UniProtKB/TrEMBL annotation:
Gene3D superfamilies: P-loop containing nucleotide triphosphate hydrolases. The keyword Nucleotide-binding applies. This is ABC transporter ATP-binding protein. It comes from the Bacteria. InterPro entries: AAA+_ATPase (IPR003593), ABC_transporter-like_ATP-bd (IPR003439), P-loop_NTPase (IPR027417). Residues 5-228 form the ABC transporter domain. SUPFAM superfamilies: P-loop containing nucleoside triphosphate hydrolases. Keywords: ATP-binding, Nucleotide-binding.
Length: 246
């Protein structure tokens, strides 16, 4: 399978601490890859490196064959962040149409994405007056409207109800079906099961990679939460053995 994102020996220091410790991974094109890990494990930092907004200490990140952060990637990569990225003093429609216009797309394109994220009724509403979940969906609409080849989505379904989560995942699946590469972080294991591939990260290192079924069978459980715990325990035991030998 062709590689969309290649990460090699990536080390990142934030503040005074090393938060990614020389990680390497390949994200294939045209599929949904889930990035899972506890809070503070380095998911957002890895996303920032992929999008090219993170200063890296060493190693490389290559996206669609170009160094992460290259000017030519700007139009080809979409980033949905957990922090607000829409104008609160504009309506939903104005925001999405504005992002669409930056990519020479029209109002119809924007309105269709607004419907897809379930904000048709709020299209004329000022973003500052939206609920938290609606605000997040307005940001998501802006990331989706440009039809990027690579979409990096940092916990895109947080705060959404089960019906909307289902619809958003259908949309993600549809985008991957049309050739887009999606990398999605989540804490929800039910969502991890929907991904084609998973990267499990812990304390700045990759603990395991593989499809959900592969990871479950490797750890002898049908439950991804359990699988993750077993991998963590196995890693801890290995580290302990390493210390004893040293
Ligand atoms: N600006 C910063 N300065 C110093 N340390 C930072 C900064 N931003 C993040 N960190 C630290 O880097 C580590 C990784 O953070 P990161 O945001 O990548 O984790 P995460 O896995 O995305 O967490 P969450 O699931 O809670 O969003 C954490 O220990 C965090 O405290």
């Amino acid at each position: 399978m062709e590689t969309a994102i290649e990460v090699r020996d990536l080390t990142v220091v934030r503040g005074a601490r090393e938060v990614l410790h020389g990680i390497s991974t390949d994200v294939p094109r045209g599929v949904i890859t889930g990035l899972l890990g506890p809070s503070g494990s380095g998911k957002t930092t890895l996303f920032r490196a992929i999008v090219g907004v993170q200063i890296v200490s060493s190693g490389t990140v290559t996206v669609l064959g170009k160094p992460a952060g290259s000017a030519e990637l700007r139009r080809r990569i979409g980033y949905y962040t957990q922090s607000p990225s829409v104008y609160t003093d504009l309506t939903v429609r104005e925001n999405v149409r504005y992002f669409a216009s930056l990519h020479s797309l029209g109002a119809a394109e924007a309105d269709s994405v607004i419907r897809e994220v379930g904000l048709a009724e709020q299209a004329g509403q000022m973003v500052s007056t939206l609920s938290g979940g609606q605000h997040s969906r307005a940001s998501l609409a802006c990331a989706l409207v440009t039809h990027p080849e690579v979409l990096v989505l940092d916990e895109p379904t947080v705060g959404q109800d089960p019906v909307l989560r289902e619809e958003l995942w259908e949309r993600f699946r549809d985008l991957a079906g049309r050739g887009a590469t999606l990398v999605v972080s989540s804490h929800i294991m039910d969502e991890a099961n929907r991904c084609d591939g998973l990267i499990l990260i812990r304390e700045g290192s990759i603990v395991a990679e593989g499809g959900p079924d592969e990871i479950k069978s490797r750890t002898g459980t049908d439950d991804l939460d359990q699988a993750f715990l077993r991998l963590v325990r196995a890693q801890d035991a290995e580290n302990e053995r390493g210390k004893e030998v040293a």
